[in-house]
Amino acid sequence: MDLGLNEEQEMLKKSAREFLSKECPKKLVRELDESDSGLSRELWKKMAELGWIGLPFPEKYGGNGGTLLDLIVLLDEMGYNIVPGPFFSTVVLAGFTLLQAGSEEQKQTYLTKICSGDMIMTFAITELDGTYLPESIETMAEAKGEQYILKGTKLFVPDANIADFLLVAARTGKSTNPADAISIFLVDAKSAGVKVTLLKTLGRDKLCEVVFENVKIPSKNLVGKLNGGWPVIRSILRKATVAKCAEMVGGAQASLDMAVSYAKERVQFGRPIGSFQAIQHYCANMVTDVDGSRFITYKAAWTESEGLPADMEVSMAKAWTSEAYKRVAVLAHQIFGAIGFTMDHDMHLYFRRAKAGELAYGDADFHREIVAAQLGL
Amino acid sequence: MDFRFSEAEKRFRAEVEEFILQEIPPGYADKDLYWPGGYGAIGEFEVRDPAVEKIRKKMGERGWLTMAWPREYGGGGRSFVEQAIFFERLSYYDAPGMDVSTLISGPTILRFGSEELKKEWIPRIVRGDLKFWLAYSEPNAGSDLAAIQARATIDGDDLIVNGQKIWSSGAHVSDCGWMVARTDMAAPPYKGTTLFIVDNKSPGITIRPIVNIDGFHSFNEVFFDNVRVPKKNVVGDMNMGFYYLMVALDFERLVISMGGFRHRYEDLLNYARNTRRNGRLLSEDARVRARLSQLAIEIEIAYLLYYKTAWMMDNNLFPNIEASEIKLITTLLSRKLADAGMEIMGQQAQLWPGSPHAPLRGRFAVGYLDSISAVIGAGTSEIQRNILAQRGLGLKRR
């Protein structure tokens, strides 16, 4: 057993904490949250230069040759600081899909640009019902000569408003099993008939509606096998789920740290409120939730990173972390009292993300059911 | 990171398993009613069973009772991860094993005791010859252990001990008490308390049973009336007992029956898979599925914290936060598991062991009552939260 981070991961963690607190202060977080794009080109460029965007991708595509676990360490810190922008969609959703299912040519063309910071990409999976099940995919791609014609509406697509390309999950035939006829396509966001609308959400995390009105896609933009998309999507969703957990763990840690340092300073009844047992017990519950979430998330990440069967581990992590981060954020709010209820205070940035994170890639109930099935129930 | 056991750890795990399956007397585990986390149904606190003594001695021969001690003191020189594996397997199979003497007294003597003390006690502890009971709590000193009033005064080569201890698990089936008493009433408790070993056979000791909520005699109240204890039984220096006690908390970190949680959970899982109600399997009920799923997740987190704590100890990291977290999590889990089991099994679950209609031998009924104790014993949940907040997060006491 080795339950610690390795030296490089420790260094990555430390340097990410330092870099982000300097280069992505809360002032910038707020500006980006309130903007339509959510993107700072300057920060994006710096992250590319640091090798973060290419962190988990092979060197031959300009990546850093790291593992999923390395990326998890970074995402933990990104969640701690909060880093608006398309990192998650470009790296986790799109990058891993191209790496796993893309042709060599697609990897050379697109993954290389992703690693260098020159391309923003996302993956349009969910539709109107917002679930992560194959039957919810109704968007159609019909073969017509050397191209496919894409028709349908996607919802909750992150960062589609600034993406250069979109990966799109679409139905490419009829089948009794809804998972059997789904394919993945690379779609140029500038194609005629692509209509992107930014959605106003509680999390301010740039989710979009994307409507495809008879969008023409060249056949060579099929990613992976025709009708073989669902297994790829499942694998990507598993990575995205544990990656989201890592962000949430970081956010929960930050909420705890902020609340504890406030409890040490804030004086009422002539003493710091942190000396009252009611507050101490809140903090104890918070740290227990934070650590539990971190351990179960890292176990899941390691399992997935090693290529071992990870459905159960990942779902355990998401079921737990979804609720734990909310509990931590709510208790942190309780400790901050009225000041935390204001737009000026940073706490709401985390409280919002706790909810958005819970909803992304399946909430606790959704993942508990997967765990139950994995347990043989 | 690597969450797998190493090859050596796997081999050791298999060895432990083989030993348990071979050495546990037939029928022993079938009678056991221990509830993970609880204090009310621990067979070793109730009777002195020759079969259990025999197994303990065999474990002692293998160096397993003291496996994480250094070799020069008869320890096994094994890692804490291995010790954690050992506990996990023991508790999974309801097997008896370590006790106060091996977990608390031995390591404390090794660290703070004189050479004479080591020579007298360590070999017997290593062999599994001795059983100790913990003489800490008093009627007016529960969570506030510093309030103890039992006192020991020096008289020539002896201490003369007077006072009362309570919640003394297994005192009536033990050889010696591992006791703290005030020795300097003028000093604050932290500087006026001494730790020593008291022989149960000493004149002046009266042990009275307390019957616990499950109807078993595991607790006692113990009265000391001018009990003579040789001064050579003092552990370390006079008046330093409280400090040794605090350090000893570090030694007990991994005393958690993780395997017990897993086994009881598996029992419940199999029950839900195989029991029909209203024409369908319990495992098809969405509420049952969600509940069992949530328990599996919480058990997984407890396991991770458990091995993480052991791993940190092996790597000279100090798992102060983790140790309190795991106590907090597992004791709450003790209640949740019992509660979920009772609700899932329904009407039959209330049946006591012995009834032919009792599901899972009535263990959940016993456990349901017992699970009240988990969050109280060995530092209540509230005390654990205080420790987490004050020592772990640096919040001030006043």
Structural summary, described in words:
The complex is a heterodimer of chains A (377) and B (398). Chain A folds into three domains: 113 residues, Acyl-CoA dehydrogenase/oxidase, N-terminal domain (Butyryl-Coa Dehydrogenase, subunit A, domain 1); 106 residues, Butyryl-CoA Dehydrogenase, subunit A, domain 2 (Beta Barrel), CATH 2.40.110; 144 residues, Butyryl-CoA Dehydrogenase, subunit A, domain 3. In chain A, 51% of the residues lie in helices and 15% in strands. Chain A contains eleven helices and ten strands. In chain A, strand 6 and strand 7 form a beta hairpin. The mean pLDDT of chain A is 97. Chain B folds into three domains: 121 residues, Acyl-CoA dehydrogenase/oxidase, N-terminal domain (Butyryl-Coa Dehydrogenase, subunit A, domain 1, Orthogonal Bundle); 112 residues, Butyryl-CoA Dehydrogenase, subunit A, domain 2 (Beta Barrel); 143 residues, Up-down Bundle (Butyryl-CoA Dehydrogenase, subunit A, domain 3). Chain B has a four-stranded antiparallel beta sheet with strand order 2-3-7-6, with no helix packed on it. The longest helix of chain B has 29 residues. The mean pLDDT of chain B is 94. The interface between A and B is large, with 42 and 51 residues.
Low-confidence stretches of chain B: none
Biggest sheet record of chain A: 4 strands, mixed
The CATH class designation of the largest domain in chain B is Mainly Alpha
pLDDT averaged over residues of chain A:
97
Content of β-strand of chain A: 15-25%
CA-CA gap between termini of chain B = 40 Å
Q: Number of helical runs of chain A?
A: 11
* Strands side by side in the biggest sheet of chain B: 2-3-7-6
Give the oligomeric state.
heterodimer
Beta-strand percent range of chain B: 5-15%
Domains of chain A (count): 3
Largest interface: A-B, 42 and 51 residues
State the separation between the terminal residues of chain A, measured CA to CA: 30 Å
Q: H/E element string of chain B?
A: HHHHHHEEEEEEEHHEEHHHH
Assigned CATH superfamily of the largest domain in chain A? Butyryl-CoA Dehydrogenase, subunit A, domain 3
